[in-house]
Amino acid sequence: MIKKDIVVSKGKKLLDVIVDNNFSYATARKALRNKDIKVNGRACKENVKVEEGDVVTIYFKEDAQIKPYEIVFEDDDVVIVNKFSGVEVENGIDKLLNAYAVHRLDRNTEGLLVLAKTVEAKKLLEKAFKQHLIRKFYLTEVVGEFEVNKMFTAYLEKDSEKALVKVLPKKTENSVKIETYIKSVKVGKESSLVEVEIIGGKTHQIRAHLAYLGHAIIGDGKYGKREDYKKFKENKQKLFAYKLVFGNVGIAGLDGKEFKILPKWLKNVKVDI
Q1: Structural domains in the chain, sorted by start
Q2: Deepest in the core among 22, 27, 87, 144, taking most CB within 10 A?
Q3: pLDDT tier at 264 (50, 70, 90 boundaries)?
Q4: Residue 49, strand partner residues
Q5: DSSP state of 255
Q6: Cα distances (Å, whole numbers) of residue 90 to 129, 134, 233
Q7: pLDDT value at residue 151
Q8: 136: which strand partners?
Q9: Are 66 and 217 in contact, with CB atoms under 8 Å apart?
């Protein structure tokens, strides 16, 4: 069991304190039932009110369900989170935060996501995305040696029945144009780390486009090759939305700001980004 101590900063219900510290409500309830929670050193089995300065201790297993995001920045207008894998943006993160989703990340893509807390902020951010005043950058580890620094243009077509997309070299009746800028960060014979910036952004654009170019994302079971999936023994796709750059979007807390975080899977890799 893993132990975590939480110093209460504001009086509230015990479960609310635990949920505010990135545990899911289900995990908090289970720990309470199992008497795996202590308040000031005493075991607790009820959702009591705790006060500022109290120490709440929770014991949990490594596979405990943790809240699917962490807050990176927040003010009265917006909230920027690091979204974890396995949660949807629409009818997911937006509901948990009681905020408006103004762009999206695929369910299994992690990283920076900005949401609006007011209707006015929602309108400003949606306009800013349409005018390309917000730039989105991703880091991903791909299969093979990939030395590159260029914009790739292609056409993307949805296949709703198979729940995937196809990338094509020429426009078809049902396709849309996509632009994907790819720059190498660290190149190796077996795999390469690349930075990706997308203009606009369509469903599965990065995953499908990289696979089309012959360098699928490691851990991508949908667009990658089965032999590569087995070779790297990675069951989570290594794709992370690591940087957001804001122009003058009309929101004081964001204008001219840059937000950047790195994925956990890069913690032991020396990179210059």
Answers
A1: 2-60 (3.10.290.10), 138-239 (3.30.2350.10)
A2: 27
A3: confident
A4: 13
A5: T
A6: 17, 20, 30
A7: 97
A8: 244
A9: no
- Report pLDDT digits (tens) over 113-163: 999 999 999 999 999 999 999 999 999 999 999 999 999 999 999 988 878
Six-digit token pair at 239?
Answer: 């794709």
Tell me the pTM: 0.77
User: What is the DSSP track for 100-133?
Assistant: EE-S---TT-EEEEEEESSHHHHHHHHHHHHTT-
Structure-token pair, residue 56: 């709440």
Q: Burial, 206: exposed, middle or buried (Cβ in 10 Å; 0-12, 13-18, 19+)?
A: buried
Q: Please, which residues bridge with residue 194 across strands?
A: 140, 184
H-helix or E-strand spanning residue 94: helix 94-97
> Which residue has tokens 């032991």?
268
pLDDT in the model for residue 68 = 78
Note whether 206 and 167 are within 8 A (CB): no
- Joined tokens for residue 48: 């009591």
Residue type, 234: E
Q: Is the CB of residue 178 less than 8 Å from the CB of residue 205?
A: yes
